[in-house]
Specification:
Elements (H helix, E strand, L loop, with lengths): L1 H24 L7 H23 L16 H7 L3 H11 L4 H8 L3 H15 L4 H10 L5
Helix pairs in contact: 1-2, 4-6, 4-7, 5-6, 6-7
């Protein structure tokens, strides 16, 4: 932030100096100041565009999450079936009921029933709670 403020201060100083240049080089003649101002404005517009592209470059960092893995021992202890565990993994990936149904080639109503069974077995009321509880119980990792 400090560098940006110093940079703009130097640009303003340069602008003030440039506006005085016509008077220094041509003290006796009337110079068209509008032409000079337009030229300097275009110069500073170009400088601003170049600096903004260099200073404010947006970078996007993409991280890849490791796929969740089912712990079969904990799965048996919790009473969750293999199909319900598959659905739990797809919920963890953030898929909707319809997307899960399309992935597993079953109806959306069947998915809703499996999710209801998962909620009952894990004693939760929401999808996020189910994932959290499954992680706490080491069903998925």
């Amino acid at each position: 932030m400090k560098n940006v403020i110093i940079g703009f201060g130097l640009l303003i100083l340069a602008l003030l100096v440039l506006f005085r240049l016509p008077g220094i080089y041509h003290p006796d003649t009337k110079v068209d100041y509008i032409t000079w101002i337009a030229g300097f404005s275009l110069l500073f517009l170009a400088i601003g565009i170049v600096l903004s592209r260099k200073l404010f470059v947006h970078t996007t960092v993409v991280t890849q999450q490791k796929p969740a893995i089912i712990n079969h021992e904990q799965l048996l202890k919790s009473g969750i079936s293999k199909r319900e565990a598959d659905i739990l993994l797809l919920i963890d990936e953030g898929l909707s009921n319809q997307q899960i149904a399309d992935t597993l080639f079953i109806s959306e109503n069947t998915i809703k029933k499996h999710i209801s069974n998962i909620f009952q077995k894990l004693q939760v009321e929401r999808r996020t709670e189910a994932i959290k509880k499954a992680r706490e119980l080491s069903i998925i990792s």
